[in-house]
Every structure is written in structure tokens, then in C-alpha cells.
Amino acid sequence: MTATRDPRPGGGAGLDALDHGILKVLHRDPRAPFAEVATAVGAHERTVARRLERMTADGRVAFVAALVPEYQYEGVTAEVAVRCAPGRVHEVALTLAALEETRSVEVATGALDVFVELHAPAHDALLTLVDTVIGRLDGVVDIHSAVVLRLLLTASDWAPYDDEPTDVRRHAVEGTALPEPPAVDELDRRLVDLLRRDARMSTTRLARELSVGETTARRRLARLMESHVLHLRLHADPAVLGYPVEARFRLGVPHRELAAAIRLLAGEPALRHLVVTSGATSLLGYSSHRDTRDFQEFAARVFARLEGVTSTETALLMRTYKRAGFASGGG
Description:
331 residues, alpha+beta, eight-stranded antiparallel beta barrel, two-stranded antiparallel ribbon, 11 helices, 36% helix
């Protein structure tokens, strides 16, 4: 890694040291038994369970389980900027967050745009969604779309509690290809659906729900968790973990400089999302920071090292309406 961050989490959303200790263990292993978490943090097992229940009940923490279609070469992912009429941004963002196809919806500084990441089964379905559904919303005046050509980093690769990079980030830093994804069949998909309902569901119950032996369920789960196609993780907004400043940036990078730029950016622990897209600005990324000074130092240090960049566009997120498929409600 080219940079490290203070491993001590900031005081976000009223969490204390014990809360952060619990989240640190579960960030590394979302299915860790309470007894194991309790031993790691030096607290009673019931205390750990009660603390986690409190954090999940008020929405600060959730568990995500999903197969990543980009790694399975399924469907098409698009990054869409929706230009809104003055006074209509909030309404449009709420409507977009309610769509099943949207993964994230946010508003950032700059133009009156709502930024959306969405996934469609095919390009014709994407066109229908962008033109017929989004394009006809009241308050929408313009739309710009870019297709994700390559997924490099996701929130699963952002590790605020650890300096050690994930395998996916390590491949990006080294410029090496990810291993071929394992074949996923109907039993695997049913297993992931159960984990989506309860990511910490016991192997015994998983086997019972799937009508298979416990050994089969355990083997299937292990195979998926060891691959990059399953994202089973602890989900919390960066602000909850002490990183309230989130930045969005687009970079125009010539093809001959793209590989080097990816390696450099991937080595920055602050990066929590990075993709290659179609269009004039080929790199889109998100980063999380403790404060605006941290972001300024990051931008000055990192972007200055990129060779051949033809354009740089940065913005700070003002409000997130949906993240990882979870709508915030938007107030």
C-alpha cells in the first residue's frame, strides 16, 4: 500500500470504544460467533450481542450479502448523472432511491445533479430504464450515462480498521487479474438469498432451509466466501465509523496511462470505490475522509502524482439517499 491511515476510528454516531471493537472484529469476519467477538474485545457475550442489536436496530449497522454481477459477467452496470430543475433535487432523489434497479443515489456539490448507480439485465433494459423511467420523471431536465467497463474496488475493499488490503485491492495495486470466478448454480443463489435475510444465519439452519446436509452447506458457503463474487460484509456509512467527508471524483486518463493510474489509486486506503467507465472521463472513484483537510491533502498528494490526466472533477457528497441497496428514507 502507498499510504496508511490512523487505525483508531473516529468517534462517529455516538459509538464508543467497545462498539468500535465489536465492529472491527465483525468487519473482518461478519459471521464470527459472539463468543469469539467477546473474547477479542474483552466483554461478556451478552454485552456484545446487546451492543450489536442496538446498532442494527437503529440502522447504523447492517449486514450485506449479495453476489456481484460484474464479477460474474451478468447484466450491465451504469453510472448516471441526472440533472434536475431547481427545487426538484430532493424529490427526484427520493424517487430514484425507491427504484429496485438503483444501488446508490446521492447528491454532491456542483451542478444540480443526482448521481445514481444502477444495474440492468441488458443494454436494452438499461435504455428503457434511463429513457422511459428516469427520463420521464418530473423535475428531470437532462441525463448523462456511462457504462461500467471494469469494477476495481467496492466498499468491501474499504477497510477503515485495518491496514492490510483485501485480495481484490492487492490485485488492483499489483495490476494483476482477479482469479476466474467460481461457477454459481441455483443452490448457491438460494444460499445467498438466505444470507441476505440473515447474514449470520447458522450453518445448521442454512442446511435445513436448503434441504441439504450441513457439510454441503458449509462447503458451499466457504467456497463462495473465499471468492470475490460474494460480498458478505458489515455495512455502515463511513460517517458512522468516523469518516463523515465523502468525495466523488472523475478523471480523464488516456489509455496508455490508465493501468498506472489504477495501481496508484488502488493503493490509497481512502478509496472505497473505483471503476473504469465509458466516456471521456474513464475513471470514477469515491473516497472517505475524517474531515475536509484530510480530503484536501489526499487530493493534492494523489492527483498530482497521476501522469497524463486530461481532466479532474471532484465533489463532496452532501446527502446519500441510498447505499448498498439500502434507502436512507431521505427525510
